[in-house]
């Protein structure tokens, strides 16, 4: 079974530039998550999708971050414009379960973003 | 809302020695508890989980954890560690009903040396 695919693996940008991350979840998984993991901290949930609808985006900085999940499959997370404090690893995860309380989360390897 | 405290940011240990990684949580509702492991340059993998039933939970790679409701703890243990156990370990908690988000601790880096 293929895992959660993320790209790019690394990204370096200047502050105020834009960047986009892509995630392809495991086939058939209804729930998709984007987490932000800042160095020295645990992952923090940014947004959770159920199929192509948003379930929770309470911690997404909506003035600069946006995310979409096309046709309930792939997802893109965008930052525009980026700030220095956005430097982090962005993790995508998917789950076959509805509700997503953590019982069956599968994580991708992440995209490491450096904002200079 | 839930929160997790991992008391040790780094735990050095010699190979074949026992280890305990500490985790305490806070919640006003019943919880599910998890330990995830993150090897260098890899994504998070589920090590073990407590959903209900026996408070002693066994996971992969010889790890186990014990849920202690009165002390709101979920410490991770292994009786004999290997070099390959060197990784970052994250404790996580979620509520048991509805769309409850998974909240992670700050992580504990386990460093196993020969």
Write the layout of secondary structure elements.
The complex is a heterodimer of chains A (116) and B (114).
Chain A: E1 5-7, E2 10-13, E3 19-24, E4 31-37, E5 44-50, E6 53-56, E7 65-69, E8 75-79, E9 88-95, E10 106-107, E11 111-115
Parallel strand pairs in A: 2-11
Antiparallel strand pairs in A: 1-3, 3-8, 4-5, 4-9, 5-6, 7-8, 9-10, 9-11
Chain B: E1 3-5, E2 10-14, E3 19-21, E4 24-26, E5 31-38, E6 44-50, E7 56-58, E8 64-68, E9 73-78, E10 87-95, E11 103-104, E12 108-113
Parallel strand pairs in B: 2-12
Antiparallel strand pairs in B: 1-4, 3-9, 5-6, 5-10, 7-8, 8-9, 10-11, 10-12
Structure in words:
The complex is a heterodimer of chains A (116) and B (114). Chain A is mostly beta strands. Chain A is built from no helices and 11 strands. In chain A, strand 4 and strand 5 (44-50) form a beta hairpin. Chain A starts with a strand and ends with a strand. Chain B is mostly beta strands. Chain B is built from no helices and 12 strands. Chain B has strands spanning 3-5, 10-14, 19-21, 24-26, 31-38, 44-50, 56-58, 64-68, 73-78, 87-95, 103-104, 108-113. In chain B, the strands form 3 sheets. In chain B, strands 2, 5, 6, 10, 11 and 12 form a 6-stranded mixed beta sheet that branches. In chain B, strand 7 and strand 8 form a beta hairpin. The model of chain B has no long low-confidence stretch (mean pLDDT 92).
């Amino acid at each position: 079974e293929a895992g959660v695919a993320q790209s790019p693996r690394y990204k370096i940008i200047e502050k105020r530039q834009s960047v986009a991350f892509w995630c392809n979840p495991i086939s058939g998984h209804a729930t998709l998550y984007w987490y932000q993991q800042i160095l020295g901290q645990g992952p923090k949930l940014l947004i959770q999708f159920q199929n192509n609808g948003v379930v929770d985006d309470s911690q997404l900085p909506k003035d600069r971050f946006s995310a979409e999940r096309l046709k309930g499959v792939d997802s893109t997370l965008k930052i525009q414009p980026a700030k220095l404090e956005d430097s982090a690893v962005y993790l995508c995860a998917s789950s076959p379960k509805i509700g997503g309380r953590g019982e069956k989360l599968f994580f991708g390897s992440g995209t490491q973003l450096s904002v200079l | 809302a839930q929160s997790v405290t991992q008391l040790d940011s780094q735990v050095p240990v010699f190979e074949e020695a026992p280890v305990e990684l500490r985790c305490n949580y806070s919640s006003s509702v019943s919880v599910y508890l998890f330990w995830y492991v993150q090897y260098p340059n890899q994504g998070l993998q589920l090590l073990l989980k407590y959903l209900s039933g026996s408070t002693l939970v066994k996971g992969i790679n010889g790890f186990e954890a014990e849920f202690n409701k009165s002390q709101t703890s979920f410490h991770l243990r292994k009786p004999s560690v290997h070099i390959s156990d060197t990784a970052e370990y994250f404790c996580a908690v979620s509520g048991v009903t509805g769309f409850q988000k998974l909240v992670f601790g700050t992580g504990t880096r386990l460093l196993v040396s020969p």
